[in-house]
């Protein structure tokens, strides 16, 4: 298997698990992942936020880690990447105001390259106008964004994921096992378990 080159769009207060887990897991199985943020360079950091579900009307938010970027946003050329990941948190609501973020997102949609978006990441897809006719899920508060953008918002349990063509989506980080497994299928990644033989 040849590893793919994957672009990850992040910003300050990206959800901690939703950036850390896929960034590390995708590299673990042999892919190259470049995490970029508008107006920031490789080696700089974004602050993350931990969102949790503790019985309130919406998620709670606590400080996370500093996540180090490993590529420079201004140097990104979308057509040099095989797939796109958009984590959630608070970053999507403002990075979607950046025209290049939207152009990058449209490139992956128009070329039908794999896109994995989770939680509030759908706000970027909605702003880019690439959800027309697509069935997808997100954090429930993003449902209206999906609908207004011409997509079909589907409410599923928070630990599940759904796929429509080149797009894999999930409501929250609870879905990581399913969300990442479906994304790996779109990437053509096969993980084989081998039985250990002891002498």
Automatic annotation (TrEMBL):
<dbReference type="InterPro" id="IPR029062">
    <property type="entry name" value="Class_I_gatase-like"/>
</dbReference>
<dbReference type="InterPro" id="IPR002818">
    <property type="entry name" value="DJ-1/PfpI"/>
</dbReference>
<dbReference type="Pfam" id="PF01965">
    <property type="entry name" value="DJ-1_PfpI"/>
</dbReference>
<protein>
    <submittedName>
        <fullName>DJ-1/PfpI family protein</fullName>
    </submittedName>
</protein>
<comment type="similarity">
    <text>Belongs to the peptidase C56 family.</text>
</comment>
<feature type="domain" description="DJ-1/PfpI">
    <location>
        <begin position="4"/>
        <end position="185"/>
    </location>
</feature>
<dbReference type="InterPro" id="IPR006286">
    <property type="entry name" value="C56_PfpI-like"/>
</dbReference>
